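Hello forum,

I keep getting stuck at the same step: I have a sequence, I want structure tokens, and every attempt I make locally crashes halfway through. Rather than fight my setup again tonight, could one of you with a working pipeline run this one for me? It's a single chain of 181 residues.
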Amino acid sequence: MVMRLLPQVAQDPQRSPARQVQGGVVPVRDVTGSQIADAGEGLVRLGQSVTSAADLYQDQLDLAMQAQSENRLRDVLREELESPESGYLNTVGMDAVGERRKKAFDRLTAERGKIEAGLKNEAQKAGFREQADRMLSTATTLADRHQQEQVINFRFGQLDARRNNSASDAAKLVGTDEGEV
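Reply #2:
Ran it on my machine without issues. Output:
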């Protein structure tokens, strides 16, 4: 039987991860600096994720608040313009000209201001303002058109009334000295 001997290698006590110290405790290799750096990078990534999630949450909340405010303004628009009992677009003749239209738009402007004041931040307010401007522009166009139509209807109504009155007056004069030509 042949025994082979392995060469002896002296271990460097500073490099040995399992070097024995007093009391039989084996210390862990000192990697504190890199562990702290890795932990710091991990915390930065976690912070970025939390910030990103918070930003997403805030964006969603801003959009929801903006939509709620737009719906409130739409309700006021419907009430002021389309209500069967009191809506401006249901007024006829001279009732559609002047003061009634002004009152409707004064209320719309006031309600818009109240709704906007109730929003919590500039992002919500800016989004609401943009949409409210469009909504009120459309409402103004509808109201202008309605007012023009009602002025024309009023004018034709007055012309018909004048013609009917003239015909009635003429019929009363037939057979009188004033009615002879």
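The mean pLDDT is 82. If your local run keeps crashing, start a new thread with the error log.
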